Amino acid sequence: MATKTLSSTCFLTLTFLLLFLVTGHQALNSAPYPVVVSTWPFVEAVRAAWRAVDNGLSAVDAVVEGCSACEELRCDGTVGPGGSPDENGETTIDALVMDGVTMEVGAVAAMRYVKDGIKAARLVMQHTEHTLLVGEQASVFAISMGLPGPTNLSSSESMEKWIKWKENHCQPNFWKDVVPKGGCGPYHAKDFVGLYDETCSNTTPVGNIRSSSHIGLHNHDTISMAVIDTMGHIAVGTSTNGATFKIPGRVGDGPIAGSSSYADDEVGGCGATGDGDIMMRFLPCYQVVESMRLGMEPKLAAKDAISRIARKFPDFVGAVFAINKNGVHAGACHGWTFQYSVRNPDMDDVKVYTVLP
After folding, report:
1. pLDDT category, 201, cuts 50, 70, 90?
2. Top-level CATH class of 33-154+220-355?
3. Which of 114, 303, 323, 326: disulfide with 332, CB 3.0–4.6 Å?
């Protein structure tokens, strides 16, 4: 009798252990993270970030790996070196990384001669108490910290694009209501005389309010990426070479925390792409995260942020993705069809989502 009771007890114990192992394994696989989300069908960049985070690296490490892959691949010709020449034919880099745990940010803007934008941004975050370094001094910092350089960030493709633009009388460009003789600069104050309505305030230009008609997928774009790691911590990053034919010195939303991307471990994260000159005035990613903090679902938070911009600038083009701390994601856009890429534990590979304006 004692033997039978012991055997029954052993059987029940073994059954319980098997059930625990099976259900425990299933629970592990059903965790909402790690997750990688990126603007556009930048599949290889998402794969690079996924490999990093799936191997136990932090969210910040994975963001740097993913954005670096896009810089190396020159995604859409608008990330990394070799694309988006300014009015002088030069390519510069803007980048940002943000840690949603510490709320630390590192960023570089209008960086010349250094191709590794996201790595330079991380060095700013790691080794300084600053948030943003700009221009040639950002390049000096990055090189002093061990990044390769100086190097020419232009390419044969970017120079060919710039030459054709010059032949087209430097159109389109980013100057308001001015086409000097010959079409190209340098521009001076006298070129703008008489362009303002004297019956109105001296800040009211004659003509249409600025639109985003010459902003598009292949002349102004950003990789913006969010990663939630296996510990549930979130980080975001961006990298871009900015608007094609921009006025030299221009900085868009790429290195601006809260505009191109934003993260808070308690809530989630956001990434943005589009007409940065307009979008940065609204800090759409900060808006998205704060809306989610107040209980709004990612889809509604993304739509709300975009609609706030569209009410003031109905012709702008842009998009955001939102992801909450549970891995729920959504996108919203205006003026173009937007795509964003995702990889999570339920997927065998990266999945691209399409969002209609």
Report:
1. very low
2. alpha beta
3. 303
